[in-house]
Amino acid sequence: MTFQSSLFHFERNLSELTEAEREVYEAVEQDGIGPREYARKTGRSPGTVGNLLARARQKVGGEAGA
């Protein structure tokens, strides 16, 4: 589900995400940080970040793989 705040801007509804999924999604999808870079910054394994990102993308209707 998306919310439209203006004619050209859509915001994704992140309310269904867990805190960890939201943090990863925002960092990668909105802030443009790479998944491996985010993993290094947070001390998580790249696999964990990838799994969180995939679940988050699926929940907000985005691509499951990337």
UniProtKB/TrEMBL annotation:
- Renumbered to this chain, the signal peptide range is none
Pinpoint the RNA polymerase sigma factor 70 region 4 type domain residues.
14-59
The record, for InterPro entries, names:
RNA_pol_sigma70_r4_t2, RNA_pol_sigma_r3/r4-like, WH-like_DNA-bd_sf
Q: Which domain of life is it from?
A: Archaea
Sorted alphabetically, which SUPFAM superfamilies does this protein's record hold?
Sigma3 and sigma4 domains of RNA polymerase sigma factors (SSF88659)
**Pfam families linked to this entry:** Sigma70_r4_2 (PF08281)
Q: What is this protein called?
A: RNA polymerase sigma factor
The source organism is Halovenus salina
